[in-house]
Amino acid sequence: MVDPGSTMGATIGVGVIGTGFMGKAHALAYQTAASLFSLPARPILEMVADNVRAGAERAQRSFGFRRMTEDWRELIADPKIAIVSITTPTGLHHEMALAAIAAGKHVHCEKPLAANEADARGMMEAAEAAGIATQVGFNYLKNPLLGLTREMISAGELGEITSFRGIHAEDYMADPEMPFSWRLEPAGGGVLADLGSHIIGLARFLLGPIVSVFADLETVVKERPVAPGQAERRTVTVDDIARLSVRFARGVGGTIEANWVASGRSMQLGFEVYGSKGGLAFTQERMNELLFYRAGGTRSQRGFVRIEAGPEHPPYGLFCPARGHQLGFNDLKTIEAAEFLAAIGGEPAKGPDFREGWEIQKVVDAARHSAESRSVLPVP
Amino acid sequence: MVDPGSTMGATIGVGVIGTGFMGKAHALAYQTAASLFSLPARPILEMVADNVRAGAERAQRSFGFRRMTEDWRELIADPKIAIVSITTPTGLHHEMALAAIAAGKHVHCEKPLAANEADARGMMEAAEAAGIATQVGFNYLKNPLLGLTREMISAGELGEITSFRGIHAEDYMADPEMPFSWRLEPAGGGVLADLGSHIIGLARFLLGPIVSVFADLETVVKERPVAPGQAERRTVTVDDIARLSVRFARGVGGTIEANWVASGRSMQLGFEVYGSKGGLAFTQERMNELLFYRAGGTRSQRGFVRIEAGPEHPPYGLFCPARGHQLGFNDLKTIEAAEFLAAIGGEPAKGPDFREGWEIQKVVDAARHSAESRSVLPVP
Amino acid sequence: MVDPGSTMGATIGVGVIGTGFMGKAHALAYQTAASLFSLPARPILEMVADNVRAGAERAQRSFGFRRMTEDWRELIADPKIAIVSITTPTGLHHEMALAAIAAGKHVHCEKPLAANEADARGMMEAAEAAGIATQVGFNYLKNPLLGLTREMISAGELGEITSFRGIHAEDYMADPEMPFSWRLEPAGGGVLADLGSHIIGLARFLLGPIVSVFADLETVVKERPVAPGQAERRTVTVDDIARLSVRFARGVGGTIEANWVASGRSMQLGFEVYGSKGGLAFTQERMNELLFYRAGGTRSQRGFVRIEAGPEHPPYGLFCPARGHQLGFNDLKTIEAAEFLAAIGGEPAKGPDFREGWEIQKVVDAARHSAESRSVLPVP
Amino acid sequence: MVDPGSTMGATIGVGVIGTGFMGKAHALAYQTAASLFSLPARPILEMVADNVRAGAERAQRSFGFRRMTEDWRELIADPKIAIVSITTPTGLHHEMALAAIAAGKHVHCEKPLAANEADARGMMEAAEAAGIATQVGFNYLKNPLLGLTREMISAGELGEITSFRGIHAEDYMADPEMPFSWRLEPAGGGVLADLGSHIIGLARFLLGPIVSVFADLETVVKERPVAPGQAERRTVTVDDIARLSVRFARGVGGTIEANWVASGRSMQLGFEVYGSKGGLAFTQERMNELLFYRAGGTRSQRGFVRIEAGPEHPPYGLFCPARGHQLGFNDLKTIEAAEFLAAIGGEPAKGPDFREGWEIQKVVDAARHSAESRSVLPVP
User: Fold this and answer.
1) Contact at 8 Å (CB) between B24 and B329?
2) Where do the domains of chain C lie, and which CATH numbers do they carry?
């Protein structure tokens, strides 16, 4: 990527489906990416779709979308749109993505890619057959310090890797009175799909393929209100906690936990990875810090270094020229959008793409089967 | 401020002078503010000025400014521009701001407001006489957790305040080979003006007026290269470290340190404030955390609470609906821009305005005189 | 336990077998316990045994043991000795403990209790049949903050417990050149017995019995020097990393990791435990701090409280009357010795006793079998 | 100091005056020092003195003192006592120390050395004239990590030192209902003498003599109950907060704060020291950790290293052979006692001795005069 500011006159139309948490994040990310990154084409917020008209209108006004619609199919069909962002509940991804691919659009889909492995595979195959570019919204992977982590592991700075411990714990489902939502529907996939996909994706990002898994899944809150403020209860069938013991293709073992009833935790997406020569520890709760231990050196001065994010960790410098000034959550989404735009423009794709989304889904599905059979299962 | 999305059709033209660190930050902030906040008028990036043409062109392309110029006077004179953002070196603020005020523009000026108290007063008086709105870029004050801090102090949650300890330490001047720049010119004001103004502003934001000061200022690196890579040296006359002992009008004492040669510190803008019933501690290095101790309660469970920023701390929720997901540096500038736009639109101004910038400058100047006379001096 | 200082004239003879890390810790603990705690009888360091004469002599001089011996059987047979401390390698515990029990001594044995479940059971049964008092050296359980943790869980301060995550990671075996020692012998039990027993014991201390386990064990360093500085290698058969997925009798699931090749970690004995109403997190790396989150309360002030150890957490106050002044590692051993002396004197035993040591060993053995069969196994 | 265990048959009698917090700490320290350190002579707890008989009796029983007395003069006169430990309120130090010196005893006196500079000088002069060994109880200086800090500064690892920021803040006087005690008497010296002497001593330990001072002292709680639970109030004349701006003889400036009304702080004895090539930060709240930043090196891996105390930092290894296992508060006192015993035996004294206690007192007195005159004063 060359210096920011060199974006040529070219533009590219973006359509965003959904106007919730992620819909807004996508709109903001495309807008900001155009300002901070040097891109092959400037994204234009062409259209937003929400089946609730008021939501679509509000998003249009806020982000300056040129048009809005209640019908996502209209958005996909629009000739001015080259990129379709899908930010709807997981169960809708499959249908929408296939339609967008069929229309020849590049597709930016929120995570997890699909409700199950078969759907994810269908999406991946369709995308690859169509030759369009894809991106899955695992935004945490875009943290410059995680890029550094991957590079350091890859460069052998930890020596031979020996162990991985990964966690994604939050508490937004801890309150038993938290009512049903799409995340609690079978298609939502429970915590394993919702948070587990993030940490599985991160594990793969750092250490490569996972080849086998043992999983313990459990539903802690057995029933919840059918809707906010209602007394009526509905049985929950998805898991609240997932504990995985995994083996990577490179011969390393590890554990992965996903938990959305971890009272007190709001963003404990973290890991520790150890090797024969060092260790690295991270938590998204302090996303601008990475702890690094290197064996050897002066014995009396050993310990973990708290590396602070700075312009030494691209593309941090595009956001701020000064170290330690802190990136935020939305900045990660901006990087994701910028990298997707670059990939569409012909630069090497940084992913994760639909194939990677499918690979993650395979681990999710294998974990589910493992939990049912209480046995170690290979990831196909 | 009502719900985002309700910004009406009105627009307001913004002109930004300067395209460096802060020039970009302002441009991005106005752009993002329009998307996330409900504003009385949508800001339009009307023109950018930089006396280096390439810089102006690059900024125009990156942020989509409608026009650019090499002549800041042209920008100020432009009838489509209602807000002038001044992001140039401190020594230029006075002339530019007076010109903008004379042209009837609202002025958003970077900190410190001016090179000295007389200039700052002149700017304040001109602005108040003209009745235009002003804003000084002390963006750290916009952190939602510092808003919470001020509220808690004001609500008496710490009891009677007894002490304040404030620090702004970084290390960007620690290397003796760091060459001269405008920050090292007398008009730049040294660390006392550059970083000191931030922490003095924060002290006032939390505890109100400072009425007397004792200061110890020192220049650690006595001479530096005249320019990058040059062997020739030039004597440094501004201070590298400032240590203040202050008294607040409310009868509380405290200390304030500003230091730009604090090797290892990249963003240690922090404070601890104590009262008869509790204490609060903060550092911008972990800007999404605030430590709070409340006396009393169960003795065996006492300690500092690590409060994580979340939607409970407005306007965090406009950026992200989930607690603990982290705001970043640029988000603070966005809040600053949004609040200034709201103030222009008639909502109560949250400041800091030029009057507050002048008040801060008075403390800076009193500290300089105190250091020269080695005595405690009143702040006029 | 009444106020310190009331220890009557009675004394009780202590014999310590072994003079390494733990031998010294025991000697110091009995000595200090007598000074800080009010005990039914003052312990007298009667005899120390080490099969290396110089070691025994040195320990005698250092700690003021009245006598020393090269023959541990002589120590056990000594009529002036009522308490036998066994601090030798694990493989020797069984024989020594049985002999001490047969001689009618109270036995304080280092952890893990034995090399396998059968030995542990034999020791437990002999002790219970003989009616002597026993103590196993899981000193970390004596941390006043872990006592608080157990009380808080038990009192329902976390609501219904939903999850446990426990870790004991260090790096003293990370260097592949670390030579063979008794810890690497089969009787040493590998990391699962060495560190795993600590965290399994802690899990049981906090949440009660573990009823089933799935384990993944692996040997990372396949061969090591036969002795310090020797080129000859010997194959390692014990595990370097153990990852367990467990279920507690109370219906809660959890994970437990033991790792002695975790480069950079020197004392990561920690856990996080979550419930419907709160969470607790701890690491022995900061043994004087406990993090506590309580759901509810003022939303804008939520977060984990960092509870600092103080006299509110007995028996901290016997060591120091002021909060936050820090206990150290040896203080935990002192508490262990004092509680054992109190139990011998008739106060309720706080354990862990040999029965508990055997229960822990059952989990260790079940985990080994699980790893071999790659299946979930019940803990008998 | 040679290997532990080599203490010869020689013994040395110790008498302790006072049985409160520090009296117990001294007794325990001498006892433990004998076990862990190789000493020229084994200390014998010969006699304890307390003007309250019950206190003396209790201490005798607890620590095994051979004798006890209500009359401290009897203790000083006792021919079997070679070391007199003075742990009484500050106002009594002068008389007791002079008596002990006159009797030819070595004197271990708690801090601060005296109620004022004149008394301290008298004690120092008497001790030096008598040729006896002295030790002042600034135990925090005995932290192995502070020894490392001093070595690193001295070895130039931070380059040229540029700044010091020192704090000792606690909250034991924060409650306005905390009644009068000797610490609030004029002879107690207020927070400046009580906590300030610790951080002044630490500043001198690390950076050498302080040559001038400006001080702001204030009494926050103007009156307090005359005794526990009494309604009657008495005016407080000593300071609750002291803020100093100092200059060191080496040409470095710094700040020092002492505060015993810092609600929430139990042991914030800390500092940050910066140099041209690095920085170090420490707080006694985490006394087993030292943060170290070194400029240069790989830019993307810069940050503060969290050095964990271990056997690489003597004499940590005498307490525990394993890194990260944590020393505690009492261990520092043990090191102090051991070093004093070694000095008496002829090894180089590590101090702080009475001369150093006097030097610290000179800074305290100069600070008081500075606060009265509101001017910068030289330290004589």
Assistant:
1) no
2) 11-138 (3.40.50.720), 144-286+288-327+350-378 (3.30.360.10)
